[in-house]
Amino acid sequence: xxxxxxxxxxxxxxxxxxxxxxxxxxxxxxxxxxxxxxxxxxxxxxxxxxxxxxxxxxxxxxxxxxxxxxxxxxxxxxxxxxxxx
Length: 85
Prior knowledge:
By secondary structure, the chain is mainly alpha-helical. The chain contains 3 helices and no strands. α2 (17-42) packs antiparallel against α3 (55-78). This is Cox cluster protein. The chain crosses the membrane at residues 20-41, 53-79.
């Protein structure tokens, strides 16, 4: 085993400021996409804008939002520390 392999640390969701921020972005995005999907399922109106949502718009928002959340969680878990550490 080389010295770089032995001294490298594994990433985690709450170890660095970047991973904490990415985890927060993932959680907020997932909750927001589920909320918009629920509004679309019930035929609700988007708060603040007044846009009428239907089931298709809610489904698209759910898939798009959960995709962003998965990418953010992957970045939070596997991003190695940068030049600052």
